[in-house]
Amino acid sequence: MVLDFAKMEGIGNDFVLLDDMDGALGAMGYPALARKLCDRRFGVGADGIILALPSDACDIGFRIFNSDGSEAEMCGNGMRCFAAFVNDRGLLAGTRFTVETKAGTIVPEIIEATRDGVTRVCVDMGEPVLSPRKIPFDVEGERAVSVPLTADDREYAVTAVSMGNPHAVIVVDRLTGDEPVTFGPSIETHPLFPLKTNVEFVEVVSSSEVKMRVWERGAGETLACGTGACATAVATNLLGLTGREVKVGLKGGDLIIAWNESDNHILKTGPATLVFEGRVTV
Prior knowledge:
This protein has about 280 residues and is α+β, with helices and mostly antiparallel strands.
């Protein structure tokens, strides 16, 4: 089968986007398709694949599979790319629409576009989940803020947040850049996270700016993680280190995260860039 695809990136987090509105790709098996297309030597190369699907509940459906074939509930950077893809391909009219995901309904809005396509998207990520039981994170209490966690004989202070997918946010005095690869795998698979977890290492620059490095569940270290940036903004606010709007600096670029006090929703604003379009035989 020959597939048309778009390769897109959101501050370095890259994806292969596919139109499966007719359901033809489902028979191939999405996990196997993800492993094949995401291979950086024998495939297109990406952190994951994203599929546009029909939805009975929303304007359109969204599914994402990591490079290892595992399915994620949602992806913030991927959602911006998805919104641009949907708009550029004419799958929906308008600049704001509802998207059905495994993490619930997400509402992206295109806020900047040029003749070459969408360049900037704001995504209403909904409300953060702070209950450990719902994250899930197997500890007691209503919130998991600065919880001691031991992995590989090293103790961390973890603040756990779900943005539809689990995150373990760890504040450090100073980032070296080695933290994700060195410490991420053992925390990702820690038994207190029954569904595994994404892991964010964070250096607070000021009350309105942080730096973040990430180890993503099922993908390893990536240049950026949108849901991780949202979880980081929530965690650092709960720890009293930042305000409700913060610039999150990642390897691939910056995201602006605002946690609205009025409705508890998180707004994430950042770029979405088309790298190239192509056709691939699978």
